[in-house]
Design a protein that fits this description.
binds FE2/S2 (inorganic) cluster; 128 residues; four-stranded antiparallel beta sheet; three-stranded antiparallel beta sheet; elongated
């Protein structure tokens, strides 16, 4: 079933829009005028991907920065831990951070599901 996501002019190049139909959540992406749709939930730990930047076809998760190619849904990288720069985090957080990092690296990053997109009469539609 095709669902209306937006009007073609509403989503500028580099824009990402969250669209939902029942339990299915999709991120519609404008890559230089071509539209793609992928699962909205990150393949690592389910962060909402429309909150992350889209640079060309590469969508970066806002939580641990895994990058996905929205044309294929492929995960292109692993999670990246937070950067504290020259500062060391407080001791309780350091201990928590070590445990968190060990767990994060055991969580597999899955590729994203992709969805067909078409533009009809200026309306972007996604096949859910
Ligand atoms: S939730 Fe997206 S990279 Fe961890």
């Amino acid at each position: 079933m095709w669902i209306e996501a937006c009007r073609e002019g509403e989503l500028a190049p580099g824009g990402v829009k969250y669209v939902r139909d029942g339990e299915v959540e999709v991120a519609v992406c404008n890559v230089d005028g071509s539209f793609y749709a992928v699962s909205r939930r990150c393949g690592h730990m389910n962060a909402p991907l429309e909150q992350g930047p889209l640079d060309g076809p590469y969508l970066t998760c806002p939580l641990h920065h895994v990058q996905f190619d929205v044309r294929t849904g492929e995960a292109l990288s692993n999670p990246i831990d937070h950067d504290y720069g020259d500062q060391r985090p407080p001791e309780p957080y350091r201990r928590f951070g070590k445990v968190q990092m060990r767990l994060e690296w055991k969580v597999r990053v899955h590729d994203l599901a992709t969805y067909a997109v078409r533009v009809r009469d200026g309306v972007v539609e996604v096949e859910m």
